[in-house]
Every structure is written in structure tokens, then in C-alpha cells.
Specification:
The protein is of the alpha/beta class. 39% of the residues lie in helices and 19% in strands. Strand 9, helix 9 and strand 10 form a beta-alpha-beta unit. Helix 7 runs parallel beside helix 8.
């Protein structure tokens, strides 16, 4: 990076053999898209991502059977592994012996065991991580912030995201656990930039994991991510990165190639201006293919939606396509039209209102009808 663009002096967080923050090189990571219980496929995907140059590979765990599979994956790879906890934070005690880092979402902590104070849940995770030599990531997503925090920041979802991250930093600090990094993500690159700037101004000591979640398909997803990174990294913000793309499973290593290119360009002082009208017209948001995807047809559906909706390119319409029940219900609410994919059906939404659940082979036609209705209303307005 050019010498006139120093990085924030964040604390060093050891994660297995690598270090995040503390002046270490920016670490690049990705996430396995295979079903965790398909051990052979998951090991092969970890190998593929690691061979592409990943410093860290993340795997999702949502059940005891996933934990058993994770243990076997760990036995068959020396890669630096992170695990993504879903709603059940108690799985931390089972996964910690097999990984180098644990990611939890503060919004998910709120929804699990609601009668229990969040402080107790965080203490459990931190104690478990300390006992097993694991780092933590506090992963806050704009679309799934703790509702109580959101209520304190009406009309300011970026402010709610930052407040949630700061609260969990304070909880961990109070427990004497400082081996953590933070991420503040959204599908809107502007909110990613704003949130990370606000947080870094408050806590310049905490290493930051950068990414635009649900960035979509290439090349759009790469462009959105590049724009965000180019505005943050030169300001010293960012210690590890992920480019989240909707890709076929066998091409997940493309995320590493994209991240290395973006970071390399920034460090060499090569910047690309923000394309004029980047967010004008049709905007398709789709989550990265990962092991939470409940039907691999989601990936083909996302590509079909992009092709089908091309006729609406000049209209200011956002279509969100989510691959699982974790992100789907909430993170499609802000889109004009949303699809969140289950094992056998796709839930079609207009804003926060569900229009129906349809088979994969019929939802595209239903979506087109809904899209035409949105366009007609815009024309009338």
C-alpha cells in the first residue's frame, strides 16, 4: 500500500498460524459451499479454496451431525479453519476443538433462548474460545441486527449495525477476551463503507473483516466489492477480506482470485473510479453460494433471474435472491422483490409481504408477473 496510506494500528489477533491485524498482511478468506456433512466434497472444496491462496476457509455448522462431519474434515486438512455458528450458539463447545476461529452473529444470539441474557451467551462463547485457543469474529449483518438494538436506532440501520458491534466488543472486553475481530456487512456497498468508517472511528484498535454480503454474481458482485474496498482500505480500514459471490460450487476459488486482485491493486495504488450510475436501474442481490444453501438449484435460479429480468435494466428495481432460511426471510424485506429458497420451494415476496411459495420450475414466471406489476406502478407514479 502507498506509504501515505497507513493502516490502522489494530491489535494482533492470532488465528491458527496466521495473524489478523497488528500490521500483518491483509488476510484473504472464503467459505465452503458444500454441505458440511458431505465430507469428501467439503474436504475437496477446502483444498480448492486453499490452493487458490486463501489464508482462511470458513465452514457452516448447524447441527450435531455437522459437528461430527467437521471433525472428520479437520482430520483430513491442515487448512486454517473458521466455523460459522447459526442460531445454536451452544454448538461452540463442540466445534471449538476442530477450528481456529468461531464466527457468531449477535442478531442470532437474540433469537435463541430469548429468556437468557445475551451477556451469558457471549460469556459462554468467549470462555469456550479461550479454552480451545480459538479466535472469535463478531459478525454483524445489517439485515439481521438484534431487534432491540434496531428499535433504538429508528431509520438508521447502519447506526444499529455499528451499535450492535460496539456493544459486543464491550461485552468481550469486559470478560477479558480481546482475541476477536469484527465485521459489519450489508448488500449495499454504501452501508458497508459507512458502517466500517463509523466503527473504526470508535474502535480503531479492533481488526475489521471487510465484505459486501450477498454481493451477487460476477461481474457485478466483484464491482460492488471493489468499490467498497477501495474506499476503506486506503483509509487504513480492513485487516481481512472476503469477496462473496454467487458461484457454482466448483468455482468458489474465484472469490480468492477476485480478492487478491482487488487488494493487490489497492496496495499498488491502482484504483478504478466508481462507475457512474452504479446503483441506477435494475439491482440484483444474491447471497454467496455456501453450505447453508438448501437446494443447489438456487444458483441456477439466480442466473435465470438475471437473464429473465434483463428487460427491466432501466428500471429502479431491486430483486434479492437468498439461498437459505437463515438469510432469506429477513434480508429480502428491503428489496422490491425477494426470493428465498427452501429445499423444495421458493418463497416469493414483495417487500416484507409473502406472495406465495412456488416450485423452482414455476417461480420464474411468477416473478415476472410481480416484476411487471412493480414496473407498471413506477410508470404510473
Amino acid at each position: 500500500m502507498p506509504q501515505d496510506q497507513p493502516r490502522n494500528q489494530t491489535r494482533a489477533v492470532p488465528v491458527g498460524p496466521i495473524t489478523i491485524g497488528g500490521g500483518a498482511p491483509i488476510a484473504v478468506q472464503s467459505m465452503a459451499a458444500t454441505k458440511t456433512q458431505d465430507v469428501d466434497a467439503t474436504v475437496e472444496q477446502v483444498r480448492l479454496i486453499e490452493a487458490a491462496g486463501a489464508d482462511l476457509v470458513r465452514i457452516a455448522v448447524d447441527s450435531k451431525r455437522d459437528v461430527d462431519a467437521l471433525a472428520e474434515v479437520r482430520a483430513r486438512t491442515a487448512a486454517t479453519l473458521s466455523v460459522d455458528l447459526q442460531e445454536n450458539y451452544r454448538l461452540a463447545s463442540l466445534v471449538a476443538p476442530h477450528v481456529d476461529k468461531i464466527r457468531y452473529n449477535p442478531g442470532h444470539l437474540y433469537h435463541h433462548e430469548r429468556e437468557k441474557p445475551v451477556q451469558e451467551k457471549v460469556a459462554f462463547i468467549a470462555k469456550t474460545a479461550a479454552a480451545h485457543d480459538c479466535a472469535l469474529r463478531v459478525g454483524v449483518n445489517c439485515g439481521s441486527v438484534d431487534p432491540e438494538v434496531t428499535a433504538r436506532h429508528p431509520g438508521d440501520d447502519v447506526g444499529a449495525m455499528v451499535a450492535s458491534a460496539l456493544e459486543h466488543c464491550a461485552l468481550l472486553d469486559g470478560l477479558g477476551f480481546e482475541r476477536y475481530v469484527v465485521s459489519l456487512k450489508d448488500s449495499d456497498w454504501r452501508k458497508v463503507v459507512a458502517g466500517n468508517r463509523r466503527f473504526a472511528a470508535e474502535r480503531p484498535d479492533v481488526p475489521l473483516h471487510l465484505g459486501v454480503t450477498e454481493a451477487g454474481m460476477p461481474p457485478d458482485g466483484v464491482i460492488k466489492t471493489r468499490v467498497a474496498f477501495e474506499q476503506l482500505i486506503p483509509q487504513g480500514i480492513g485487516d481481512t477480506v472476503r469477496v462473496s459471490l454467487t458461484l457454482p460450487f466448483e468455482r468458489k476459488d474465484d472469490e480468492i482470485d477476485a480478492a487478491r486482485e482487488i487488494v493487490g491493486d489497492i496496495e499498488a495504488g491502482r484504483f478504478r473510479s466508481v462507475p457512474e450510475g452504479l446503483d441506477d436501474g435494475l439491482n440484483i442481490i444474491s447471497c454467496p453460494s455456501c453450505s447453508r444453501v438448501e437446494n443447489e438449484a438456487f444458483i441456477e435460479l439466480a442466473q435465470d433471474v438475471k437473464a429473465m429480468s434483463a428487460y427491466a435494466a432501466d428500471y429502479d428495481v431491486t430483486i434479492a435472491i437468498m439461498g437459505c432460511r437463515v438469510n432469506g426471510p429477513g434480508e429480502t424485506d428491503d428489496a422490491d422483490l425477494g426470493l428465498w429458497c427452501g429445499p423444495a420451494a421458493v418463497n416469493l415476496k414483495r417487500g416484507s409481504v409473502t406472495l406465495g411459495a412456488y416450485r423452482y420450475d414455476e417461480v420464474l414466471n411468477r416473478l415476472r408477473v410481480a416484476l411487471d406489476a412493480v414496473i407498471a406502478e413506477q410508470a404510473t407514479a
